[in-house]
Design a protein that fits this description.
Layout lengths: L4 H10 L13 E7 L7 E7 L4 E6 L4 E6 L5 E5 L5 E7 L4 E6 L4 E6 L4 E7 L7 E4 L4 E6 L9 E6 L4 E7 L4 E7 L4 E6 L4 E6 L5 E6 L9 E4 L4 E7 L2 E7 L5 E6 L4 E7 L4 E6 L3 E7 L5 E8 L7 E4 L4 E6 L7 E6 L4
Antiparallel strand pairs: 1-28, 2-3, 3-4, 4-5, 6-7, 7-8, 8-9, 10-11, 11-12, 12-13, 14-15, 15-16, 16-17, 18-19, 19-20, 20-21, 22-23, 23-24, 24-25, 26-27, 27-28
Length: 336
């Protein structure tokens, strides 16, 4: 593996690089989208590909920012939120779902401009969510702070926009990931070092996979073709590959600290791990689950979340409005 000495020295000085560096980065910065007036960090993102819009949960700003991807201009700033976390855009219904951690609710927006049409009460710290287009069901992780707010995964009917059920889990759910072909939902239970598997048809927990010597498992990604589950961990900082049927650990590799978002790109068989320490770690993932560290791309500290849009070959990363002005950096991936 070739090491670029100039890049390696720079990254070492910045305290970023823990893994090998190739001379050519797998992602290339294409442009930046300024988000004037946004303060603090971003949480999750969503995209409306048909409408060329990007949605950004600006947690520190208590808003969801709506950006025109064609022009890079801000279309709308949805205010009145507490702490927006998870986002999901459902194109066939024209709905934007926003999990609000501070207000302990799920908000549903529709129209142009987007307007609130429904609020569904949840427990505190409503967080990540995924929408199953095949069944029109939304899954939302929430709760876990105390006995009055039990850790659960809420199941929301996408037609009636009502709560169907809550599935109890051991601690606050972090990332949720969907296996649409297998009708499964994977849930990271970070404090317990556990991955829970929910059957999307029966809405029952069918597996609880305990990680071996790892906790702080925050982000997830799924390789549907090879049935591999990728798990980003904070304690210790590493990326795991699990067998998607059994939960058995296949491989692991060290990563930068503060893993918070993770994406898998089928066209390149690469995983992109976004970390709060200010780095994007890129790994090649083989069909049998082996990992090869490719590169570290430096961002800024606190730039912990983003969104991969495979059809665009684009990786969006939110740069918090703290030390630097808030912006979204748009990287081109190596997809061919």
């Amino acid at each position: 593996m070739i090491r670029n000495s100039v890049i390696a020295v720079c990254i070492a000085v910045c305290g970023i690089g823990l893994i090998q560096i190739h001379a050519e980065s797998p992602i290339t910065l294409q442009r930046t989208i300024p988000l004037t007036g946004v303060k603090g960090k971003f949480d999750h993102f969503a995209v409306d590909e048909a409408g060329h819009r990007l949605f950004a949960a600006a947690t520190g700003n208590k808003t969801v920012e709506v950006v025109d991807l064609a022009t890079g201009t801000k279309l709308q700033s949805i205010a009145g939120l507490g702490k927006p976390h998870g986002l999901a855009w459902v194109a066939q219904k024209g709905l934007l779902f926003v999990a609000d951690g501070e207000k302990a609710e799920l908000n549903v927006f529709k129209g142009s401009p987007l307007k609130l049409i429904r609020s569904i009460k949840l427990s505190d710290d409503a967080d990540d969510l995924v929408y199953d287009n095949a069944t029109n069901v939304l899954y939302v992780g929430h709760g876990g702070s105390d006995t009055a707010n039990p850790a659960s995964v809420a199941i929301i009917d996408g037609e009636s926009l009502s709560l169907i059920a809550n599935i109890a889990v051991a601690a606050h759910p972090e990332a949720l990931e969907l296996d649409e072909t297998g009708h499964r939902v994977f849930v990271n239970i970070s404090d317990a070092g556990q991955v829970v598997v929910i059957d999307g048809r029966s809405h029952a927990v069918v597996n609880k996979w305990q990680l071996n010597g790892a906790k702080g498992n925050t982000p997830l990604a799924y390789d549907v073709a090879d049935d591999l589950l990728l798990v980003g961990c904070r304690t210790p900082a590493k990326l795991l590959v699990l067998n998607g049927k059994t939960g058995k650990e296949i491989a692991s590799a060290p990563s930068d600290t503060g893993a918070d978002d993770l994406f898998y790109e089928p066209a390149t068989h690469r995983a992109y791990l976004i970390t709060g320490s200010g780095a994007v770690d890129t790994f090649a993932v083989s069909a049998d689950g082996k990992l090869e560290a490719l590169a570290v791309t430096g961002t800024v500290a606190g730039a912990k979340t983003g969104l991969l849009v495979p059809s665009q070959r684009s990786l969006y990363i939110g740069i918090p409005g703290t030390t630097f002005p808030a912006e979204v950096r748009v990287y081109q991936t190596g997809a061919r």
